[in-house]
Model the fold of this input.
Amino acid sequence: MNHLKIYNFLIKKANSQNRKKLNKLNEKYIYYERHHILPICLNGNNEKENLVLLTAKEHYVAHKLLTYIYPNNRKMVVAFYMMSHFKKYKKYASSRDVEYAKLLKLNTPISKETRKKISNSLKGKVSNNKGVAMSPEQKKKISAANRNKKRSEKTKKQISETLKKRMSDERRKEISEKLKGNNNHLGHKHSDKTKQKIREKRKNQIMKKGWKHSKETKEKISQSLKKLSND
Done:
């Protein structure tokens, strides 16, 4: 199918009718939408020769045809996606078109230039989710997803550097001192029931499928459990 030929025929037909938006009360009002024949993202302009009045349905079809003519143009894809999800177009957007628009948007790559523009536009803006507490289900899903992730050495190093920046050396040292000796220097003593829970929890962690500890780690865990039992 020659989509460009169909698109040109649609534009030619609209231009031949000498259409006008009528706003007078004594004349019948016909709803038209202004369309750029050569889209702005393809260096089109706002000159009269590059503009045509289309019905809402024609406008929708024109943008769908443009996605076939320029399949790798992200801006063209997004324009059609937006039209497929606007309420005023719902009666024209079939379920097939909505699915097509979504898949097209997902599969069309974003250029480096566009990524940079999006990044710059988001800088300094507060996220809509800021301050909104996550449900236990969401936390569980995120935890499970992170547990199964295999990170490269480069990623691990980046995470480590980020965490170091968030906490000063003095604060890190202060926390370390507080944790030494199971907090006994602060007067914190665990009850027998709490000790038993900690022992069970650590044992379960050790026995958990897929966990592999080095000999050094096993020795540390053993010493830690012995010390806890003697407290």
Remarks:
- Residues 161-200+227-231 form one domain.
- Strands lie at 33-36, 51-54.
- The radius of gyration is 32 Å.
